[in-house]
């Protein structure tokens, strides 16, 4: 299995509990296809450099994932369908960093 760092941005008008529910949904998608999410970091609401779909701020969340490519592809497919998720990015890495990012 491969290691991935995944960051997604959720709309500013959803609550932190809804963002947590989205994260749990994505974790279950990855787990259902044979992967694991080793770390979840919620970075809070931050200002965006430019407007995305009329939003000036967004909820930022980081996931460290150890999963096959099919699991990541399915997670990204579901994120693309979700209207509350503005952007997401997944990067394959050689090793996952331990400890908090910021």
Protein model, in words:
- This protein has one domain: Ribosomal protein S6/Translation elongation factor EF1B (Alpha-Beta Plaits, 2-Layer Sandwich), CATH 3.30.70.60.
- Helix content is 29%, strand content 48%.
- The chain has helices at residues 16-32, 69-81; strands at 2-11, 36-52, 55-67, 85-93.
- Strands 2-3-1-4 form a four-stranded antiparallel β-sheet, covered by helices on one side.
- Helix 1 runs antiparallel to helix 2.
- The model has no long low-confidence stretch (mean pLDDT 91).
Briefly, what is this?
With 102 residues, the protein is α+β, with helices and mostly antiparallel strands.
What's the layout of helices and strands?
Elements: E1 2-11, H1 16-32, E2 36-52, E3 55-67, H2 69-81, E4 85-93
Antiparallel strand pairs: 1-3, 1-4, 2-3
Helix pairs in contact: 1-2
Key words describing this protein structure:
globular; four-stranded antiparallel sheet; alpha+beta; Alpha-Beta Plaits
Low-confidence stretches: none
If strands are numbered along the chain, what order do they take across the biggest sheet?
2-3-1-4
Give the integer mean of the pLDDT values: 91
Distance between the termini: 27 Å
**Helices and strands, in N-to-C order?**
EHEEHE
CATH classification class: Alpha Beta
Structural class: alpha+beta
Beta-strand residue fraction: over 45%
In the CATH hierarchy, what is the superfamily?
Ribosomal protein S6/Translation elongation factor EF1B
